[in-house]
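Hi R.,

As promised on Friday, here is the backbone we talked about, encoded as structure tokens. Could you run it through your design pipeline when you get a chance and send me back a sequence?
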């Protein structure tokens, strides 16, 4: 009796995932600009950046023009939701991450995204290696380049630290996201 129930639940979950993916693919196809945030496991920094930037785009009336996603350079957490500490920190600032799921960055992402933004130098180097000598390498940047007034050049990984690390990550991401939004608006005249 339990086996058919498990199969039914798995079928339902898969159908929901497929529907979500189809909706995201349609949004990506319609967007003028595509932005991908990348960290190591796609459960702390990059989903927070995705959520923060989406909120900014919605506030600016640009959500339909700019597609936002996040990914990890490693496959440790594929399919998992963002870390509960990231979710709690983001939610305190009005950003809901519950619908996000970790995925690993792919070679196709370099062609599909206009901005591929690494949270730190290590993940930046992983992205360069994955991209190879493609002319698309110029799409890969450090996210903190969009916060030139801050001394930090990287968004630190808060995974092994305490709650203050998640708050600091949120501060850095909000600052860099504001700079990114200015850049996107200027570059694409939107």
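Update: got your reply. Pasting your designed sequence below so it's all in one thread:
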């Amino acid at each position: 009796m339990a086996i058919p129930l498990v199969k039914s639940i798995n079928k339902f979950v898969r159908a929901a995932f497929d529907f979500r993916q189809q909706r995201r693919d349609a949004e990506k196809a319609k967007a003028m600009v595509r932005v991908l945030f990348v960290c190591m496991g796609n459960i702390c920094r990059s989903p927070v950046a995705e959520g923060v930037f989406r909120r900014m785009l919605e506030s600016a009336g640009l959500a339909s023009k700019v597609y936002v996603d996040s990914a990890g350079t490693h496959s440790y957490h594929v399919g998992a939701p963002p870390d509960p500490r990231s979710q709690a920190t983001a939610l305190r600032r009005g950003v809901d991450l519950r619908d996000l799921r970790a995925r690993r960055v792919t070679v196709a992402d370099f062609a599909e995204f206009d901005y591929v933004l690494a949270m730190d130098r290590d993940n930046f180097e992983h992205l360069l290696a994955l991209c190879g000598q493609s002319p698309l390498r110029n799409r890969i940047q450090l996210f903190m380049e969009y916060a030139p007034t801050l001394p930090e050049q990287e968004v630190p990984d808060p995974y092994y630290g305490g709650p203050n690390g998640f708050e600091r990550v949120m501060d850095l991401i909000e600052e860099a996201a504001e700079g990114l939004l200015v850049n996107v608006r200027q570059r694409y005249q939107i």
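One thing I noticed while checking it: The chain has two domains: 1-30, 31-188.

Thanks again,
M.
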